[in-house]
Give the backbone structure.
Amino acid sequence: MKIPFTIEQFLEVFKNYNLSVWPLQIIFYLLALIAILLSLKKVRQSDKIIPAILAFFWIWMGIVYHIINFTAINTAAYIFGAAFIFQGILFLYIGFIKQKISFQFHSDIYGIAGSIFIFFALILYPVLGYLQGHRYPSSPTFGLPCPTTIFTFGILLWTDKKFPMALPIVPVIWSVIGFSAAFALGIKEDIGLLISGLLFTFLIVFWNKKLRKTKIGLIHKKSSARHIHQTFQ
């Protein structure tokens, strides 16, 4: 992939963004913590608040990072921005309005994988970046596309019912595009973006198939029970 900007220009965008929005990065961590706590201990509005938080992140990244900042060095950022805004609207519509996703942490493979992704996005990602020489403010902080996409994958793996496969379309695509560009520029911590995208896709497809088989099994069991009941009447 031919990158239309240099690593210096790329890091300068991070610097301009971080300095202009400070101290909102702290608020973003607090919002992430709220989403985590509401998945661990559900309250009445958990399944509306969590998608609303995700929607905010994606609309924010689309407008403030891509359109306002990243377009300074890459005109394709207008397209990225529109895609991120669309993803935020999807979270609002499918999660907040229609309430078709539900969150509850379970200590199975899905919950554990989600926990690893979340830990990587919030803690390990900035640590690895620091070790690579990407120091604040010239570094991708939480609230920017790559770490926030990994966090999104983590939270979505904490779902506890059938998952709308159209919902994470932009994060999955971005896990490939974002990784390819950033890794080519030396942002090596973004290898976690590609890995999380691939693992998330595999796990969520398997999760939906598992639920479908469970549902079919319950239908057959109910049908058999009904047949036995009718036989002995």
